[in-house]
């Protein structure tokens, strides 16, 4: 499969590299004899039959898309682990009570088509399908995710809804994207919840005039106003003990001789306490609006494009992960996730839990992203154990 020249991944959702990865996934699961389906937002579903196919499958899901400067583990580790679960079951001849589904969720990253975790949000009824399919490419507003799914041949017929396409539970493995496990020398993380998140798009407008002839006192420089916001976002993240970053940033006109009159930027904020997160976002909005007023700028738009409250995963599913770690003799600790995953959306409607595996120096969204084969194997064993434990619980309830 195609990768980037720097050794990482540039597999943006619904681009040509994503199609290559999707085609590979389809071939792999068909070779295992799985029932293979694609839904209307492009997510791929591979289901291995169980003894009782009248109950919803246990899901193991993650994503194959990356950010522009991605690594090889964020997302693919979860999908590859799901495939390994299916292979172990097939090769061992073990038939689970419930069917098992492995899912490649479309557009988890949201790097090309914000917001992130798009398909799982639609599946859990947190986002409408029509809205999702109309979301545009950040680099080319004429392209929608709907049109790109059609172009690469992955606009499927299957419904995107937990009501018509249900799961009994959902498990996901992911690199930690932090150093807590690595620093503690632990094998695995049992993820029992996550912090809240906010994404915002902001547009500031000033007046463009000649840079060489306009007096400093009379300028309405949108770039200066936006730059103050960049520093304030960082200050607030540190001051509140949370996380905050300005990411996308565009200014116009782009030349030596004109004062920038148009600036569009995006920022995100995270904190595990909902009240603190609300205070952070209120404070930055007040700052941006006050700065714009003082500088003679217009706040053309200020849009919240993604909101997620701090949450807890389902106790029963978390206990299955913890049981699997203990049963295999792995050292572990309970952790919260610092960012979004498809599991945060499946958690709305079915018991869900996650497994974290250590990653070198906590690096992710980078070609330097790395998790050792041993750590990946340990994490996969925990996922398999959690799935089998949950399957035993379903057998007791229904059998």
Topology:
Layout (H helix, E strand, L loop, with lengths): L15 H16 L3 E4 L5 E5 L9 E5 L13 H17 L7 E5 L13 H6 L5 H5 L11 H8 L16 E7 L4 H5 L3 E7 L1 E10 L16 H18 L3 E10 L9 E10 L2 H22 L2 E11 L2 E2 L2 H13 L4 E6 L5 H4 L5 E6 L15 H26 L1
Parallel strand pairs: 3-4, 3-5, 5-13, 6-12
Antiparallel strand pairs: 1-2, 2-4, 6-11, 6-13, 7-9, 7-10, 8-9
- Give the strand tally: 13
- What's the average pLDDT? 96
Radius of gyration: 23 Å
**Helical segment tally?**
11
Q: How would you classify the helix and strand content by structural class?
A: alpha/beta
Identify the CATH architecture of the largest domain.
3-Layer(aba) Sandwich
CATH topology-level fold name of the largest domain: Aminopeptidase
- Quick one: CATH class of the largest domain? Alpha Beta
Sequence of secondary-structure elements: HEEEHEHHHEHEEHEEHEEHEHEH
- The CATH superfamily label of the largest domain reads Zn peptidases
What are the segments in which pLDDT stays under 50 over at least 5 consecutive residues? none
Largest sheet: 9 strands, mixed
Shape: elongated
- Give helix % range: 25-40%
Strand percent estimate: 15-25%
Count of all domains: 2
Give the termini separation: 43 Å
């Amino acid at each position: 499969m195609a990768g980037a020249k720097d050794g990482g991944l540039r597999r943006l959702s619904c681009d040509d590299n994503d199609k290559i990865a999707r085609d590979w996934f389809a071939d792999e699961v068909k070779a295992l004899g799985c029932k293979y389906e694609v839904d209307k937002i492009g997510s791929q579903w591979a289901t291995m039959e169980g003894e009782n196919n009248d109950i919803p499958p246990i899901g193991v899901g993650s994503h194959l898309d990356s950010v522009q400067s991605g690594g090889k583990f964020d997302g693919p580790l979860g999908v590859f682990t799901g495939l390994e679960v299916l292979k172990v079951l097939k090769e061992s001849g073990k038939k689970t009570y419930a069917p098992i589904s492995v899912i490649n969720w479309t557009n988890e990253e949201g790097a090309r088509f914000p917001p992130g975790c798009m398909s799982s949000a639609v599946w859990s009824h947190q986002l409408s399908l029509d809205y999702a399919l109309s979301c545009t490419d950040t680099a080319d507003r004429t392209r929608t995710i709907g049109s790109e799914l059609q172009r690469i041949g992955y606009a499927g017929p299957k419904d995107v809804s937990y009501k018509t396409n249900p799961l009994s539970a959902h498990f996901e493995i992911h690199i930690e994207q932090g150093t807590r496990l690595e620093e503690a020398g632990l094998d695995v993380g049992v993820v029992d919840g996550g912090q809240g998140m906010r994404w915002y798009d902001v547009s500031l407008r000033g007046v463009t005039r000649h840079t060489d002839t306009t007096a400093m006192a009379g300028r309405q420089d949108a770039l200066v106003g936006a730059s103050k916001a960049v520093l304030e976002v960082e200050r607030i993240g540190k001051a509140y003990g949370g996380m905050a970053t300005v990411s996308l940033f565009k200014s116009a006109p782009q030349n030596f001789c004109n004062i920038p009159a148009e600036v569009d930027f995006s920022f995100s904020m995270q904190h595990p306490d909902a009240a603190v997160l609300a205070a952070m976002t209120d404070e930055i909005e007040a700052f941006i609006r006050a700065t714009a007023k003082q500088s003679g700028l217009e706040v053309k738009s200020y849009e919240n494009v993604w909101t997620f409250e701090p949450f807890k995963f389902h106790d029963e599913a978390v206990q299955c992960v913890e049981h699997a770690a203990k049963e295999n003799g792995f050292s572990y600790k309970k952790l919260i996730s610092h960012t979004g995953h498809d599991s945060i959306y499946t958690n709305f409607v079915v018991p869900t839990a996650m497994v974290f595996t250590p990653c070198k120096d906590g690096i992710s969204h980078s070609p330097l992203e790395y998790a050792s084969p041993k750590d990946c194997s340990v994490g996969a064993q925990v996922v398999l154990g959690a799935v089998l434990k949950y399957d035993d619980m379903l057998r007791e309830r229904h059998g």
